[in-house]
Amino acid sequence: MIDVSHGLQWFQSLSLLFPDLWKYGMLSLSLLLLLVALIVLTCQLCKCWKLKKSGTERQFVKEAQNVRRQENGLQGKRLQAPLLGFGQQPYHEVKIKKIPKKLKKLRICFSPFLANHNSCDGGFLASETHVPDRSQGKLRFSLLYDSKQLELLLTVAEALSLQSQECTNTFVQIRLLSRAASSSPALQRIVHEWQTQVVKNGSSPVFGDQFTCTLQKTELTKSSIKLEVKHFDRYSRHIPLGEVRVALNTLSTSESMEFCEELHEVTKDTVGEVLVSLKCLPISQRIEVGLLKVKTALLYNSPEKRIYARIDAFCNLYKQKHQKSKPKTLASVTVFNETFLFHLPEPVAWDCAVLISVYEIEPKGRQLVGQVALGKWGPNERDDHWDCMMQSIQQPVAKWHPLLI
């Protein structure tokens, strides 16, 4: 009994040496060390996963290089140092794969459409139209000109057999064009512009929209209707599916004419001219774009309109920050005389481009008047103005360009 009581007294004295505060402190310290160990383990696992992923990318790039060498008959030959360094970088491989998609997206703005006019009895001036091998669909509509009321009635009925499977929300944009009184025979004037309702989910949408406008008989011989079928995209650019053009001098007065026309490839119309100057500054790696003058026919016969220009620069299909001009009052020749500097990360080459978009200011927003695209799109697509800029270093070169829409 003496030994047991002596042991209890020793245990009680030992427990007094370590109060409860110390016990909880040691427990908290052990938990903290456990948490740190788990964080270190997680970091090591993430690092191993990234190394494994980068190794897979290197292996994929190496296999792609071997396939390319076999296709080009270069197996066993040593590539040049610049090309070898370029091919070993996965970033450039991914960039090259994205180029076709971005080119297709920008083709709407940057396609170099050349104005081509028909004979005078054709009734309108149009861009060169290419008829595709496979039908893009049809558009059914009707036109009626009331010679007594001097009114033109357009009824857009439906579109038939649209081929694009991704384009499910469809509408039709209509422009009434007229030859402008100008020295340039290709210059057009937009008299009226309409848009049908958007029809969802259908390769053969039914519209049933009607549009009327006042039109003099003398205007029939030099006017035309352009109906452009588009896919509606709320968050991006509307995708054109095809167009139909009809000369109004073929209309019979007071008789409705039904049309069911094939959709052709969308072309551009010349609605004005823009005087642009370009200057290359290779030392500072910049390009200077000068917006000098804009020549247009008065839109919709409405005076006191104000317009401005937006300038976008692209290099290697990467868009630089755009710049805007000051608003000017619209006239037959609108003078801007403004210059804009853009920094180019690489020397000016064929893969650099400048897009000038002229907008009309409206109470509810803006309306596109036309666009001008400058630059080189490839080794076989030349731009004389761009070549002159490259030959005249640090000297501005000015030239007139057609304003297209």
From TrEMBL:
Gene Ontology MF term list: calcium ion binding; calcium-dependent phospholipid binding; clathrin binding; phosphatidylserine binding; SNARE binding
GO CC aspect terms: axon; dense core granule; plasma membrane; synaptic vesicle membrane
Keywords: Membrane, Transmembrane, Transmembrane helix
Transmembrane regions: 21-43
Residues in C2 domain copies: 135-261, 270-401
Top-level taxon in the UniProt lineage: Eukaryota
GO BP field: calcium ion-regulated exocytosis of neurotransmitter; synaptic vesicle endocytosis
The keyword Transmembrane is assigned to this record: yes
Record keyword Membrane present: yes
PANTHER family in the cross-refs: C2 DOMAIN-CONTAINING PROTEIN, SYNAPTOTAGMIN
Family classification: Belongs to the synaptotagmin family.
Name listed for the protein in its UniProt record: C2 domain-containing protein
